Amino acid sequence: MVGEPLSAADPCKPIWVFALVLATAAPASVPVPIHAQNDPGDTVSLAPIVVSALRSPVRLDRLPFSASVIAGPTLSEGNSGLFVEEALHALPGVRVQNRYNASTGERISIRGFGARSQFGVRGIRILVDGIPATLPDGQSTLDHLDVGSLGRVEVLRGPASALYGNGAGGVILFRSAPPYAGTYRQDLSVVAGSDGLLRVQTTGSGTVGRVGFRASAARTVFDGFRSNASGSGEDPYSRAERVTITTALTTPAAAGTLTVRLSGLDLAALNPGSLPADVFDEGSNEAWGFNIARRTRKDVRQGQMGVHWRGPFTGLEWVVAAYGVRRELDNPIPTSVIDLRRSGGGARLQMGRAWERIGRPGRVDVGVEGDFQSDYRRNFVNDGGSAGAPTLDQEERVYAAAAFCQLLMPLTGRLDAMAALRFDRFGFRVNDLLAAPDDPDDSGERGMGGLSPSFGVHVDLGDHGAFASVGRSFETPTTTELANRPEGAGGFNPDLEPQEGWTFEGGIRGAAGSRSAYDLAVFTTVLTGQLVPFEVLAAPGRRFYRNAGRSRVRGFEVATRTVLSPSLAARLAYGYVDARFIEFRAGNRVFDDNRVPGIAPHRLEASLRAGRGVWFGEVRLELRGEVPANDANDGVAEGYGLAGIRFGATDIRLGRFALSPFAAVTNLTNARYASSVVVNAFGGRYFEPGPDRGGHVGLTVRWETVGDRS
Predict the structure, then answer these.
(1) What's CA 380's distance to the chain center, in Å?
(2) For residue range 244-290, what is the model confidence (pLDDT) as tens digits?
(3) What is 569-636 written as a DSSP string?
(4) I need a labelling partner for 650 at 20 to 30 A (CA). Which of 197, 328, 522, 530 fits?
(5) Is 478 within 8 Å of 137 (Cβ atoms)?
(6) Which of 161-175, 234-248, 284-298, 638-652 is the least confident region?
(7) Can you say whether residue 563 is alpha, beta or left, with left for phi > 0 and alpha for psi between -120 and 50 degrees?
């Protein structure tokens, strides 16, 4: 393959050594207070940061698990608002493969978990404004996420994620910006860029009395860059149109705070597919011809609502939350037309109590939650993008019930311990509606359950804190993974089992000198029954799953931030992941000691950001090592390096108006690279190309009423 390889023989390899040295040495190299940056949401700020990813508020500097928080200008300034990767840049352990394909979405992984996903996100629990984006079966979709409205992201990696159940990699909490504290503010943003990008967003926010509100609507059009070489139909064959609407209302209620959130989505996107090595190496950005002939695409409409109340009652702090979601999907893939109607919802009840012991806070939380998912799934033969003869007609139900508890206990003046226990029970039921004399009834049900304990300790070392933890993960197959059977039968695959694992980690975080902060974690996970995707000759482009015997994931991640001057700061995140099969046989083939496909052993993200007054500028760098593309490891996506710049101003005042212009250039060196890898794709079609050099410009106009801020 053609690219920018970072193999052992490549002269670029010293970059990795330099990056690692920089990551570990930078904290000791400079001398000014890091709080000079005045960014309390930054992952490495020394001011106390409270995270809520553990179901209850805990200070980050006392946390015995791996976590990161990012907020403020990094989430908004200079970004297009189109891609999730913009909001997750330089977070340790978090990797995004941007497929530039809205019909499948960006692939997010934490410590390698999630890299197998065909569409959406797997292996990670995701919540958007407190509403689960991960349904009971473990599948997450982020089509509805309004990146342009984000105000904060929290990421929990490793053992503590067991508290959420049904996920091995971690937890991501996306939070929209809070309501404006003044009377009213109106924002209008316009972004235009290469490959036909046009994004328009309007947001109104304010406070009336003690009631806060925020409403946003955005429309995005992105033509993409995947050409239609056949000359028939749309060109380019990668266009996407998306409309999102989000609203939130926050008000005092019954001595607590009540929040109501609603969102809606309408998305239409073409699916250009992946390419084999010979076509990719020619430098082609063509859509795959078979995808064009079969009119592969995705049309989806989704609406959801969530209600959340937190407050005191009977001397305890209570949380009551409920949500509901409706999703309608029309999804022609190369071999089938999928018609899916999905309803889901759930509720959570939690109570907690905090106290103080030996001058340090302790806390206990217990809770229960239940979720349901109801799918009506019909598959048809793909007849040029239209539905042909039916091949599957079934109703699928998933019921999930869980109980959990968590205890944070100070043991000494410097030593804290946190223990958690969660029990999950899942019921999968299918009603086969296509039964006939020559097609037996495949109706049935399956039950899966797991106990997920976790335990961690944190030692306060002054400017530093050391931690160690252990936890068990439990992850079921999704309904789609269960329903896709290589033999073409209906019902659920009786041979596909959950994957289970134990994770051990240790780390240290804190300040080094007066200008730097750092976060270092080392981890090992041992899995049994890892879920591995594959394709077959009879159904290219359709993903099936099987369990590997045993596998291991180990590595480390390090992140630093260094304040070089009052107007200049550097961020760096480097991660190493060695993921291998220990015992794995598929038919007569043995894959013992092979690398788990889809996971790059090396990845580095760095940025250098300057700001003076209202003006800012930033340079971003991403380096990724080679990625094995299949279980045999004989297909590889070569490593690459990408650079980009963004610059602009925030809130240039013109009377009651404020202007925020910005611009960005992406893929500055015009590198040729595979932005995503389709694991074990049939025919070697592993590679999804990334775009050439491009960019965008934007302007946000803000108007505020004159009123008291509360």
Answers:
(1) 31
(2) 999 999 999 999 999 999 999 999 999 999 999 999 999 999 999 99
(3) EEEEEEEEEEEEEEE-EETTEE-TTPBPTT--SEEEEEEEEEEETTEEEEEEEEEE--EE-STTS--E
(4) 197
(5) yes
(6) 161-175
(7) beta
Reported as a pLDDT band with limits 50, 70 and 90, residue 513 is confident
pLDDT for 48: 65
245 DSSP β-pair partners: 217, 264
Cα–Cα dist 644/131, whole Å: 33
Alpha helices by DSSP H, 393-533: 479-483
Which tokens in the block code for residue 119?
Answer: 């569409």
- In Å, how far from its chain's centre is CA 378? 28
Mean pLDDT confidence for 654-677: 95
Residue among 217, 222, 250, 253 at smallest CA distance from 237? 222
Burial track 526-545 (b if 16+ CB lie within 10 A, e otherwise): ebbbbbbbbbeeebbbbbbb
Does residue 580 carry a pLDDT above 60? yes
Dihedral angle sign, alpha carbons of residues 146, 149, 155, 161: negative
- The first and second tokens of residue 77, run together, are 């300034």
Residue type, 414: R
The Cα-based distances of 40 to 36, 46, 511 in angstroms read 10, 8, 15
Torsion of CA 76, 78, 83, 87, to 10 degrees: -40
* Angle ∠(622,623,629) on CA atoms, nearest 5: 120
**35, two tokens:** 């709080």
Tokens of 371: 């979720």
Q: Is the pLDDT of residue 555 over 80?
A: yes
Prediction pTM value:
0.88
Nearest to 443 by CA among 511, 397, 405, 406: 397
Strand partners, 499: 475
**Tokens found for residue 231:** 């000359």
Pairing type for strands 170-176 and 124-128 reads parallel
Of 538, 689, 681, 690, which Cα lies nearest the Cα of 118? 681
Instruction: Please name which of 407, 516, 490, 385 lies closest in space to residue 456, comparing C-alpha atoms.
Output: 407
Contact of 125 with 183, CB cutoff 8 Å = no
pLDDT classification of 396: cutoffs 50, 70, 90: very high
Q: How many C-beta atoms lie closer than 10 Å to residue 73's C-beta?
A: 17
Is residue 439 within 8 Å of residue 391, measured between CB atoms? no
H or E element in which residue 199 lies: strand 197-208
Residue identified by tokens 């899942």 is 426
Start-to-end Cα distance in the chain:
59
Tokens coding 637: 């996506």
Rounded distance between C-alpha atoms, residue 200 and residue 703, angstroms: 16
Write out the two tokens for 121: 């996100």
**What is the total residue count of the chain?**
710
CA dihedral for 513, 516, 519, 520, sign (positive or negative): negative
